[in-house]
Amino acid sequence: MASYKPYSFVLLQLLLVLSAFDSGNADGLKLGFYERTCPSAESVITKTTHQYISREPTLAAPLLRLNFHDCFVRGCDGSVLLNSTKNNQAEKAALPNLSIRGFNVIDAAKSAVEKTCPGVVSCADILALVARDAVSLTYGQHWEVPTGRRDGKVSNISEALANLLPPFANITTLKSAFAAKGLNVKDLVVLSGGHTIGRSLCSAFTNRLYNFTGRGDADPTLDPKYAANLRKKCKPTDVTTRVEMDPGSFKTFDEDYYTLVAKRRGLFQSDAALLDDAETKAYVILQATTHGSSFAKDFAESMVKLGKVGVLTGKAGEIRKRCAFVN
């Protein structure tokens, strides 16, 4: 048996390395990471976010979406914030990111922090903290965000197109994409609840309203009355009109999203897809029938998990001076 020990040791080391690779460097994150180096960082970021959202509440949803789009491409490293260059099209240029607003909020928060603690707080951490504040400032849950992320130096349009989920994704695609990021089925259905705030361009769902199967019909999984109402707002070629994703409370972070999905009134095919899986459907029904009994707590937990995907810590990456540019 002794002769196998060297091989067992090597195998163990290899497994540990692979495990660390799959989860990024999440162990390098911790609560209060800037407690000594920039103790006012979080309060400065929250103050800045509040200034913008109090003036324009509709910014909350794109700021939350911005964080999700960052983490799903190369991990939570702020790569979505980088501008394209002469020789490289960045993630910002990808179709799913063209309609996102809020980059100015991140830049303002970074500028405010830099005045207090230059070269200390990463843009990736600012993104995570702003997303949390966007939820809490729209009457949603507040949670503690582990920090210590560093900023990536690479941003590529092709990676965004390959990793960001389209609004027409089915349940198989959704589950597979989340699993690839180390997120489970519960995380999928919980984070989908982020659609409780915000608006969407008609072009993201008009395929469900017109000629869905090639016979001039609507998507049969969409409530007919809701589809008729949406057709009044969105014509087949409309690419500019925005529609509330959670009609009536699209500025309030609540559990109404699940009530809509349960009634077949989820705006996207990816929302409707949550009824095609036993686990996700059960969660939708639970939250819809219990006034979101566990949604706030669940959302906070899943956001913390999302925030650990593919992070750079320690000496990896850099701390950008400006979020749109590598140093």
Automatic annotation (TrEMBL):
> GO molecular function terms here?
heme binding; lactoperoxidase activity; metal ion binding
- What PROSITE patterns is this protein classified in? PEROXIDASE_1 (PS00435), PEROXIDASE_2 (PS00436), PEROXIDASE_4 (PS50873)
Which cystines does this chain contain? C38-C117, C71-C76, C123-C323, C202-C234
**EC number(s) per UniProt?**
1.11.1.7
Q: What does UniProt list as catalytic?
A: H69 (proton acceptor)
In which residues is heme b bound? H195
Binding of Ca(2+) 1 occurs at D70, V73, G75, D77, S79, E91
Q: Give the UniProt entry's GO cellular component terms.
A: extracellular region
This enzyme catalyses: 2 a phenolic donor + H2O2 = 2 a phenolic radical donor + 2 H2O
What SUPFAM superfamilies does the entry give? Heme-dependent peroxidases (SSF48113)
What is the protein's name according to its record? Peroxidase
